[in-house]
Amino acid sequence: MAGIPWLAEIRSSGKITKAADLAGVSYRHAWNLIEKWSAFSTPQTSLASLAHDGCDLAGMHLPQGELRKRTIAASKGWLNAGTHRVIGFVTREMGLMVAPGNPLGITTLERLLDPQIRFVNRDPDSGTRMLLTQLLAQHRIDPQHINGFEHAEFTHAAVAAYVASGMADVAFGVEAAARQFGLDFVRLVTEDYFFVSRKEILELEAVRRVLSVMRSQEFHAAIAQLPGYQVNDAGSIRTVREVFRTME
């Protein structure tokens, strides 16, 4: 399977059917692959994979603000201060994707309680769904009272496409996906996104090349073109204690 073009098609159109056709596989096979990949979609599952040698770089995103300590506490059990290192990457904006002009005036999570407002959610195993659930709990909002909360899609592009097509009024995800589909965006929280690795792989030539790209001006310029993303010490290497001491 041509993995990168296949994933690029999902990001571009939000349509699994078109991506499956491009790759020459069935819709069911494409869906099964996404389900398999979604097993690594939260900070905890990525770190668990790293701990069991299932990957070399584990992506991790932490919300800024009041929710940060809770996410750190849930992740610390998978981190080893002696063997792991943290690689800086980017920040990203998370919030509500709404129709152009925001005709329904959806500016807060509380507006999702209006039964006339149709919501489309991310899949239950995604880090985005976990973040939304934490935000709702913080605001003491019962997700069972949100119209469409159990209607789930696998990608940021997919939920944005739902809103853009008029099949939903609002979704929660990254700003870049909202702008890609011409939607308005209501920022709710900023996340720090970085990678965790075992310290010994930092000496590998392939990893050195990745770090060099992260530190380059070309990479910084490319990130600057993504709405809602900003470079944040990309390619810097710090210890687990350094990072979590400053983040708590």
What features would you describe in this structure?
It is a single chain. By secondary structure, the chain is an alpha/beta fold. It has 2 domains: 1-39, no CATH class; 41-248, D-Maltodextrin-Binding Protein, domain 2, CATH 3.40.190.290. It contains 11 helices and 7 strands. Strands 1, 2, 3, 4, 5, 6 and 7 form a 7-stranded mixed sheet that branches. Strand 3 (119-122), helix 6 (127-138) and strand 4 (152-153) form a beta-alpha-beta unit. Helix 1 (3-13) runs parallel beside helix 7 and helix 2 crosses helix 3. The protein starts with a helix and ends with a helix. The model is unreliable at 34-40 (pLDDT under 50).
Helical content class: 40-55%
For this structure, what is the CATH class of the largest domain? Answer: Alpha Beta
Total count of domains: 2
Task: Describe the global form.
Answer: globular
> Count the strands?
7
CATH topology of the largest domain: D-Maltodextrin-Binding Protein, domain 2
Count of DSSP helices? 11
Q: Give Rg in angstroms.
A: 18 Å
- CATH architecture title of the largest domain: 3-Layer(aba) Sandwich
What number is the mean pLDDT?
85
Which class do the helix and strand fractions yield? Answer: alpha/beta
Straight-line N-to-C gap: 42 Å
Largest sheet: 7 strands, mixed
Q: Per DSSP, what share of the residues sits in E-state strands of 2 or more residues? A: 15-25%
Which key phrases capture this entry?
248 residues, alpha/beta, D-Maltodextrin-Binding Protein, domain 2, seven-stranded mixed sheet, 11 helices, 41% helix, globular
